[in-house]
Amino acid sequence: MENPHDTIQLSCKGRCFDFPLVEGSEGEQAIDIKTLRARTGLITLDPGYANTGSCTSSITFMDGERGILRYRGIPIQELAQQASFKETAFLLIHGSLPTRDELTQFSEQLTDYSPVHENMRLFFQNFPPNAHPMGILSSMVNSLRSFYPEIANEDEEIKVTVTRLISKIRTLAAMSYKISMGYQVIYPRPDLSYCANFLHMMFDSTVRPYELKEEVVHALRVIWILHADHEQNCSTSAVRLVGSARVNLYAAISSGITALWGPLHGGANQAVIEMLEAIRKGGGDCRSFVERAKNPNDSFRLMGFGHRVYKTYDPRAVIMKEVCHKLLGALGRSDALLDIARELEATALEDEYFISRNLYPNIDFYTGIAFRAMGIPTNMFPVMFAIGRLPGWIAQWLESIRDPHWKLSRPRQIYTGPKETAYTPIDQRV
């Protein structure tokens, strides 16, 4: 936190101003400029907010230079190896791993809240047949406000509401797929785990019962844990920004889902599969596409390589690579796109151009392949991401509304348009 002896000086128009340095628990530092405009009349300009800290947070720590990611201090590697998704969600939202009694109670609540109001099916059925599942999910989450009361400020009411949402989002996601395909909706089973229940609702049918495979359940658990939070990314920032207006939880989360829909964020794993399909249609020659990606005059880019923050191997991708390869081996699937993905991975990892620029395969590359191997439709990939990211969004929303220094988010700008201009009557316009 702030140390009154550590400051940084800004010199402007012959005057000097001191601003305090803020230090986080892992030693990262920032300049506290909340009084900048009041004292100097200046603002900062930082397109994309790449150098701007929008808040302090005790939820997730990441270090892009060293490839570190921790939830509440626990390394992502340990959670992926040992924790359940429910434990991870509880950790993010409540600040510590659950005791056995707390986990039992949390699990029972997730089971109790998993069904959705039957009238919600009418909403689903009125979407056009070609509606994207992310658009449906965002709308359905927002509509939950109509079926459940506004959150009171009491902690117990908030706890019930967030648990209800974590439970229902997997049901809504599976229902959106079933209804879009014209299939009968499958309801959750109380005897299945969180991840297994989603797979059951997604793929089971009265015609052909779905066989739950441990390898698939395990892979889905790891994927959702790896996606559960990732500091102040685009969708999380959207949740905090919208939430700063003190909207209800459902509206804030709906904004996060919408932000996640973008191809540069949650849609990246879908873009990976589309890229692999383009390579297949182009003859399957990975080397030629790698050379195109290296050509600055070619608009083609390798999707699923490199990361905005990580300047070394994405620690989630290290885990996901192993999980993905084990999943493919266990399922024994024969798929031309998966073969191309393996070849593309090997080609890029041996190419000095990608190595020198730290353009390693990221988590989106491997999750796209894993989802395809599981049988998840490509347009459902961002939905899968949203389910995993929900606990992080909720944790970030809770932290922001409980912040005693809360302020409505209101970024500034540098205006570059015309100066004052007189109104021109329509008959005089050229």
TrEMBL record:
Keywords: Acyltransferase, Transferase, Tricarboxylic acid cycle
Protein family (similarity comment): Belongs to the citrate synthase family.
Pathway: Carbohydrate metabolism; tricarboxylic acid cycle; isocitrate from oxaloacetate: step 1/2
Xref: Gene3D superfamilies: 2.20.28.60, Citrate Synthase, domain 1, Cytochrome P450-Terp, domain 2
GO molecular function: citrate synthase activity
Biological processes annotated in GO: tricarboxylic acid cycle
Name assigned to this protein: Citrate synthase
Membrane-spanning ranges: none
Catalytic activity, reaction form: oxaloacetate + acetyl-CoA + H2O = citrate + CoA + H(+)
GO CC terms in record: cytoplasm
Pfam assignment, any one: Citrate_synt
Active site: H307, D364
Domain of life assignment: Bacteria
InterPro entries on file: Citrate_synth-like_lrg_a-sub, Citrate_synth-like_sm_a-sub, Citrate_synthase, Citrate_synthase_AS, Citrate_synthase_bac-typ, Citrate_synthase_sf, Citrate_synthase_typ-I
SUPFAM superfamilies cross-referenced by the UniProt entry: Citrate synthase
Source organism of this protein record: Desulforapulum autotrophicum (strain ATCC 43914 / DSM 3382 / VKM B-1955 / HRM2) (Desulfobacterium autotrophicum)
